[in-house]
Amino acid sequence: MSWTYDTLKIGSKDCVKKVVTGEDVELFAKISTDNNPVHLDEEFAKTTPFKRRIAHGMFSAGLVSAVLGTKLPGNGTIYMSQSLNFKRPVYLGDELTAWVEVFEKNDEKKRLKLKTWVENQDGKAVVDGEALVMFDK
After folding, report:
1. DSSP 103
2. Whole-angstrom Cα distance, residue 54 to residue 34?
3. Which residues touch 30 (CB under 8 Å, ≥6 apart)?
């Protein structure tokens, strides 16, 4: 669906899905310069509480940005703020679904407050929070 500010309602929501691969994590490390070995080194990761490699927390948060920029509200969205709560680790091979749901509209400024969350293949939240965006299409 192609959204306009007027067609968005409280409760409007959409998502993107992504299976996390080792290549994704390696590329994210390269782009972000976060080379923590818990993300990149299986032997090191075995010594951590996670017992295996995990994706960067911001990788999951980046999927929220994908929803905002491509699905809901979509093209023309201006990200203003985001709160994040990291709930559980994301492992290579996990299938993530990032969700965005409108819970408040400011018609005067054409701003939206959105509930944001990412869940794994078991339906468990790995990250949640709130976003504020400007959208005036």
Report:
1. E
2. 13
3. none
